[in-house]
């Protein structure tokens, strides 16, 4: 099987070591692999090069359409596993795009990875709309689920599927992370987690932004709101350290 990955530069897959920048594992040293393709289209997406290719008319605030051949690379799952193992990390974050669109190939890759780097802990970052295959699910230690609120530009019928929100609420490995742009977004977060009975200790709110100034401005009011509502807040550490750049 093959996997379709994002690139750092044409032909070079986005597989790298860094500190996890968001959510429950923030600050941990990890290996990252970024896959290409997504079933949603967030207007503020900071990895639009994984899906907003020339000919895709879905809106994005930057108005940039990327050349598919320069921003995608297809690799055999054994090569992907070998590149991950070579980074020497004990934890892997699989991100995208939407990684669960490639569930069967991911499962094969992780099975091979387990033979060459046994004991690797695995996180998958997902928008929460795609159910993991059973063969993949047994190899995942943590899901970082980021349901997309209406300000993302996605219709709720695609982004906020009730049975999937229930599914993640029932999985103790799943942590929800909501991207927040303005205070009113917190009302939507609260309504969703109450309707689907998500434990608050597994719910994070995170400011939307791709530069430190924007993040800090939003964190000033978001911190008070998180405290008032009993929610966890997460920063975007990688933005402060490296900026909005690939491979970080």
UniProtKB/TrEMBL annotation:
It catalyses: 6-carboxy-5,6,7,8-tetrahydropterin + H(+) = 7-carboxy-7-carbaguanine + NH4(+). Substrate binds at residues 19-21, 34, 95. Binds 1 [4Fe-4S] cluster. The cluster is coordinated with 3 cysteines and an exchangeable S-adenosyl-L-methionine. Keywords: 4Fe-4S, Iron, Iron-sulfur, Lyase, Magnesium, Metal-binding, Queuosine biosynthesis, S-adenosyl-L-methionine. It is an enzyme of class 4 (lyase). Residues 25-244 form the Radical SAM core domain. [4Fe-4S] cluster binds at residues 38, 42, 45. InterPro entries: 7-CO-7-deazaguanine_synth-like, Aldolase_TIM, rSAM, rSAM_sf. S-adenosyl-L-methionine binds at residues 44-46, 97, 146-148. Pathway: Purine metabolism; 7-cyano-7-deazaguanine biosynthesis. GO terms for molecular function: 4 iron, 4 sulfur cluster binding; carbon-nitrogen lyase activity; magnesium ion binding; S-adenosyl-L-methionine binding. Mg(2+) binds at residue 47. It comes from the Bacteria. Its cofactor is [4Fe-4S] cluster; S-adenosyl-L-methionine; Mg(2+). SUPFAM superfamilies: Radical SAM enzymes. Its EC number is 4.3.99.3. GO terms for biological process: tRNA queuosine(34) biosynthetic process. Catalyzes the complex heterocyclic radical-mediated conversion of 6-carboxy-5,6,7,8-tetrahydropterin (CPH4) to 7-carboxy-7-deazaguanine (CDG), a step common to the biosynthetic pathways of all 7-deazapurine-containing compounds. Belongs to the radical SAM superfamily. 7-carboxy-7-deazaguanine synthase family. HAMAP family: QueE. Homodimer. This is 7-carboxy-7-deazaguanine synthase. It comes from Croceicoccus ponticola.
């Amino acid at each position: 099987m093959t996997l379709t990955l994002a690139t750092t530069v044409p032909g070079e897959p986005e597989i790298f070591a860094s500190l996890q920048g968001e959510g429950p594992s923030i600050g941990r040293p990890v290996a990252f692999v970024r896959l290409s393709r997504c079933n949603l289209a967030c207007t503020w997406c900071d990895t639009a090069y994984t899906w907003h290719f020339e000919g895709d008319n879905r809106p994005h605030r930057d108005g940039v359409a990327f050349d598919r051949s320069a921003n995608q690379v297809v690799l055999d799952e054994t090569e992907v596993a070998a590149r991950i193992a070579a980074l020497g990390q004990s934890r892997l974050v699989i991100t995208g795009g939407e990684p669960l669109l490639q569930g069967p190939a991911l499962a094969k890759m992780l099975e091979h990875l387990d033979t060459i780097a046994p004991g690797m802990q695995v996180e998958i970052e997902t928008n929460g709309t795609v159910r993991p295959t059973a063969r993949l699910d047994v190899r995942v230690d943590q899901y970082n689920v980021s349901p997309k609120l209406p300000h993302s530009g996605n219709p709720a019928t695609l982004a906020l599927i009730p049975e999937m929100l229930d599914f993640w609420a029932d999985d103790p490995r799943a942590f929800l992370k909501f991207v927040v742009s303005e205070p009113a977004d917190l009302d939507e977060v609260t309504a969703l987690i109450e309707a689907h009975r998500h434990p608050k200790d597994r719910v994070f709110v995170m400011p939307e932004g791709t530069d430190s100034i924007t993040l800090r401005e939003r964190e000033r009011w978001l911190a008070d709101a998180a405290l008032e509502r009993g929610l966890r807040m997460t920063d975007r550490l990688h933005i402060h350290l490296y900026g909005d750049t690939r491979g970080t």
